[in-house]
Amino acid sequence: MTKPIAIAIHGGAGTILKSMLTPELEAEYTLALNEAVSAGYKILKQGGTSLDAVQASVVSLENCYLFNAGKGAVFNSIGKHEMDASIMEGQFLKAGAVSSVQNIKNPVVLARAVMDQSEHVFLTANGAMEFAKARTIETAPDDYFFVQHRYDQWQSVKDTDHYNLDHVAEPTDKKFGTVGAVALDSLGNLAAATSTGGMTNKKYGRVGDSPIIGAGTYANNSTCAISCTGHGELFIRRVVAYDISCLMEYKGLSLKQACDVVVYDKLVKIEGEGGLIALDTAGNIELPFNSEGMYRASVNTQGKVFVGIYK
Amino acid sequence: MTKPIAIAIHGGAGTILKSMLTPELEAEYTLALNEAVSAGYKILKQGGTSLDAVQASVVSLENCYLFNAGKGAVFNSIGKHEMDASIMEGQFLKAGAVSSVQNIKNPVVLARAVMDQSEHVFLTANGAMEFAKARTIETAPDDYFFVQHRYDQWQSVKDTDHYNLDHVAEPTDKKFGTVGAVALDSLGNLAAATSTGGMTNKKYGRVGDSPIIGAGTYANNSTCAISCTGHGELFIRRVVAYDISCLMEYKGLSLKQACDVVVYDKLVKIEGEGGLIALDTAGNIELPFNSEGMYRASVNTQGKVFVGIYK
Fold first, then answer.
1. Rounded CA gap, A293 and B197, in Å?
2. A40, A241, B247 from A217: Cα distances, Å
3. Model confidence at B168, in pLDDT bands (50, 70, 90)?
4. ipTM confidence
5. Which residues face A121 on adjacent strands?
6. What domains can be seen in chain A, in order of their start residue?
7. Does B78 touch chain A (CB under 8 A)?
8. A270, A276, B11, B200: which sits with the fewest CB atoms below 10 Å from its CB?
9. B39-88: per-residue pLDDT in tens?
């Protein structure tokens, strides 16, 4: 009997209502989520590692203009794209992360290189980009990251002190643009990865939870793999991803119970809007979010594909 | 009856042997540790907050050329001083952190400003320095950070691929240069802060555990306040500071039991050399380290001062 394989992905959470999406756009999101989850699942199905699977899914999401990561990364206050990403595997607890990198086509690939090809876990800004250069990680010019609706969003808030947690023009609307994946491979190993362009019009080299091991990303074969999307500052202060792992390991909660406590109780109490994707070594998948919607997809241990956007 | 107050500080851990320190240097370290712990304790004694106390102690350590933080920060691969710091309070779980900042006299003061004067938790590199400028945080020229023995250490490894986790010339010797403080104030609030210059000859904008909430620094009134010093990569992967909190909250361990599990078992198993300082709301102080020594000091709830360097 082969061991179970499973995968889940997200493309961000927030105020995502059916009334806000045209049928065409909804179809486009659905297709993109399907493609991204399939990219990772294909690797698992062929006996590949969960690390390669989460990387492939996140690369697929980074390459799609719809999501706030890679190509679709939002504009910061000076019209640049500053991205964060991280990746972790659950067998040896190895991890790699980068913050505030520019002109890197796939930040998750750079995070993976930090994990595999350096003695470090976390590199930032210009230094991380020098490392990318030394490792011939693929770069892309500013033009590559130009997406009209992102530009329009930025124009609507630029020269103000507003910043958006995501990709809607109205500062009152909240979307948390992040992408991520969690996977379980046929060897029983878990992995997680997260990537983001951060907040529209962000200043001051702001870093959210996405590149923080323990906050936005965590994987441990004894418990679970987690990738978060939400109001990053609150997710950092609550060490969200590792909290779920600890609730399982130290308190004996199931994956579902741990997710429920963190997403629907702890985070709600501090207005920590957002969600996460979670997977354990039995292949149980949880996709909880306390916002209006979360772009998400999964393939469970029976091979059943699920794609969801709204509640 | 007034509530108990207490404070503990560290100035780094690693291969610190009595044979390596002249009596004069030992006396200098002892004096500096005494001064730093007193700076924070004085604030607590006058009814000040634990946040102000940990900040004062860390500023004192940052201003001393002996420790790898602030003035004494090590040289990176291009002869600059790139510093990380973080601070957190245990009542509302507010936090502030900066990574890879240059020419900031007291990085912990900048981390505090991020916490108090921004909506963010974590700022990095040039962006963090712009924020510092906008908030008129005190800067210092490169000259201020010039310390002869740091320069000599750098010269001995520069133009090689070696980097040192601390401030000894021999790459085989390990010291983890970091400073930190934890405090409990008369209102029963905990706080923690950590600051570092990172690794001698470091490249690529490497960031260790010091600015990572949950890894190098954590504070929560329901459990404990923690500041770590050690091999940062391993401390990030183990989410060390929050792990101690979770072992207390979810598994019911005492502060001492939780510290023992993490420092003498979990970290030892992965060769995670280093230590930490820990404090709970009853005023219990733990100063565990699995290395040869750790520069440390504390004032307990009885007002008794302790200063230690070796095992």
1. 42
2. 17, 6, 20
3. very low
4. 0.95
5. none
6. 6-310 (3.60.20.30)
7. no
8. A270
9. 999 999 999 999 999 999 999 999 999 999 999 999 999 999 999 999 99
